[in-house]
Amino acid sequence: MNITVNNEIVEQDVETLTVAGFLESRGVPAQSIVVAVNDDIIPRPEWGTHQLEDGDNVEIVQAVSGGDHVDTLTIAGQTFSSRLFLGTGKYANRQTMVEAIAASGAEMVTVAIRYMKLDGDANGEPSILEQLDLSKYRLLPNTAGAYTVRDAIKMARLARAATGTVWIKLEVIGDQRTLWPDVAATIEATKILVEEGFVVLPYTSPDLVAAMRLEEAGAATVMPLASPIGSGAGMQDWKSIERIVAAVSVPVVVDAGIGVPSDASLAMELGTSAVLVNTAVAKASDPVAMARAMKQGVQAGRLARLAGRMPVSGYANPSSPTEGVPVATVIE
Known about the structure:
This protein is of the alpha/beta class. The chain is built from ten helices and 19 strands.
C-alpha cells in the first residue's frame, strides 16, 4: 500500500493500517498534531478506527504557532514563524517598546515615516532603528498620514531610502475622523508601487471586491481593518473578513481595531494568516504582559483553525447519554 504523507510517497508493507497505527509505526508523537486524510481532518478519537487506503493523501500538521515548526507564514518569499506583527508607536518610552516586541515573539514590526529620526532626537534618544535588533525583525515602514496617492508614493520612496527595504505597509486615508482607507486610491498606489519593485501590504476596508482588486494589482497581502484604527473595538464585521479569506489567495492580515487577545484569536479562527497590533499593546496598563497575551491569543486561534471547529447546530445536542437515565418513581 502506497500513501502520500506531507507530499512524499510512503510505501507500507501492510494491507490495512489505521491512522493511529501509522503514527506509531513512524514514531510520530501524537501530542499537538492534526491529521487530515484526503483534505478531511480526522478527529483524534477516530484515529484508532479510521483505515488508510491505497492512494490516500495524508497530511500531518504540527498544530502550534510561534517558534520553530512547520506552520510558518510566507509573504513574498519571506518566511515568518510568528503570525503576530507589532507596531512601534504610542509606547510610553522606547524601552517598553523593545521589551513588548520581544515578549510578543513578533518578527515583523511597523515603523511610521514620521518617527524615523535616524540621527536621534532633541533629547538625545537614539534612533528607533538603533534600538531594534534588525537581525531579528523585518521592518515594515508604513505610509500613515497619507491622504493622496502622491503622498503615499512619496512616503514609500523615502522609507525605502531610509531603511533599505522595499517592503511597505500602504495606507491611503479617505476620512480623517475615522481614518477609513480610500480604497480606490489604495488600489491605484498599489499598482504604481508594485511596478517600482515594492512589496506592498495594503491597509484596506473589509470589502470583498476591494481585496480582490488589490490582489489583482499585485499586493503581497491584503490587510482589512477589524474596526477603526486605535479604537480597540474588535472584530465588528467578522463575516466580511471571512469572505475575504475565502476569496483571495494572498495572505490576509487583520489590521487595526484589535483590542484584546480574544479579538486576535477570532481573527485567526476565521482563517486569516496574521494580525497586526499596535495600540492595544502600547496603551495597555502593562504593555509587555499584553504583548505576551496577544501572542498566546494568536496561537490559540491558529490552533483552533487547524483543529477544525465542531459543526454549528440550531438545536441542543446532549453530551450525556439519553438512555438509562434514573427517574423518580411516584409512590401513591
